[in-house]
Amino acid sequence: MKPRDFFYELLRTPSPTGFETKIQRVVKKYVSSFADKVESDLHGNLIVSLNPNHKRKVMLAGHCDQIGLMVRHISKEGFIYFSALGGIDGGVLPGSSVVIHSEKGLVNGVIGRKPIHLQKSEERQKMSLEIDKYWIDIGAKDEKDALKKVEIGDPITFSLNVLQLSNDLICAPGVDDKSGVFVAMEALRLCAKAKLNVGLFAVSTVQEEVGLRGAKTAAYGIDPEVGIAIDVTFSSDNPGAEDTKSSPCKLGGGPAISKGPNTNPVVHDLLVKTAKKFKIPYQSAPSAKLLGNDANAIQVSRRGVAAASIGIPNRYMHTQVEVCSFKDLELSAKLLAEFVKSISAKTDFTPI
């Protein structure tokens, strides 16, 4: 399977947070041909490694879970009410097509809302963002008919369609953060035939969207010296990015390298040095706050980890139409692979 085909398969595979088993199987199948070791832990993380017995360890983490919904109630009329799995934007839900991933099979549905013709003036002026105001219509005749197809607790995703836009841009739900999983595994693939001075661990982490939980347990188990999270970051090259004082970040501009209290300065400098050496375009991603991704959890594991984050520019985050550039994914994987290859026995990540 070609790398791009692998990325598309990731995007088309459901992985609502807490329900990541299917996508981990896809990752495991893909990496088995070039990894030295593939294992999972009790939490559900998939840990892929090269040179796993080396004393020094580098961890690359991309979370495979995506935001989603969960069935919480079925009305007598057969309509389905739901709860959020992760940070759902209620504003994008009405009119969405969704898939309920039931043990009985895939069930298509649409999220309904009162037609504009029937709305009162105050309803038209202010759209409710409360998801308990919405429902899913699967075409059931009544509650009994609906229960033949779905159960309380079934996970739900947006319809997992992939659209190819102009200039090699890719649009799909779950770009956050299946792009990070792809980059971590692609970086490991690019290192597979190299003589490394470290053990390399690429981890497809779980439950990032509900508290960075998978990265926390994976980092504790691996005990890496260096840990780099690969996640999406907000792009500024669209009308929705109105804050002109924020750092510029463009699709196709290359990976965004973190800088700030959640980033080890030695790792940052080596990433930048590597990018310049191999003429890999990159962008700066300064943050005065702790990052809201797996690097946050990895940095404070055990005695501490030399952490950093690589950001994949993303438009329309946490919607069903997230957009990224495949070029940025390839550049990010190359940067991380060359970074890992550059680590020598003398490389010291201690800041002082």
What does this structure look like?
The chain has 352 residues and is an alpha+beta fold. It has 2 domains: 3-66 and 173-342, Aminopeptidase; 68-158, Elongation Factor Tu (Ef-tu), domain 3 (Beta Barrel). It has 9 helices and 17 strands. It has helices spanning 3-12, 21-31, 121-125, 143-147, 175-191, 213-222, 265-277, 294-299, 326-342, and strands at residues 37-40, 46-50, 57-63, 68-74, 80-85, 97-102, 105-112, 135-137, 155-158, 163-164, 169-172, 199-205, 226-234, 256-259, 283-286, 306-314, 322-325. An 8-stranded mixed sheet has the order 1-2-12-3-13-16-14-15, sandwiched between helices. Strands 5-4-9-6-7-8 form a 6-stranded antiparallel sheet. Helix 1 (3-12) packs antiparallel against helix 5 and helix 5 packs across helix 9. The protein is globular, with a radius of gyration of 21 Å. The termini are far apart. The mean pLDDT is 95.
Label this structure with key terms.
six-stranded antiparallel beta sheet; globular; alpha+beta; Aminopeptidase; 17 strands; Elongation Factor Tu (Ef-tu), domain 3; 2 domains
Itemize the secondary structure elements and their pairings.
Blueprint: H1 3-12, H2 21-31, E1 37-40, E2 46-50, E3 57-63, E4 68-74, E5 80-85, E6 97-102, E7 105-112, H3 121-125, E8 135-137, H4 143-147, E9 155-158, E10 163-164, E11 169-172, H5 175-191, E12 199-205, H6 213-222, E13 226-234, E14 256-259, H7 265-277, E15 283-286, H8 294-299, E16 306-314, E17 322-325, H9 326-342
Parallel strand pairs: 3-12, 3-13, 13-16, 14-15
Antiparallel strand pairs: 1-2, 2-12, 4-5, 4-9, 6-7, 6-9, 7-8, 10-11, 11-17, 14-16
Helix pairs in contact: 1-5, 5-9, 7-9
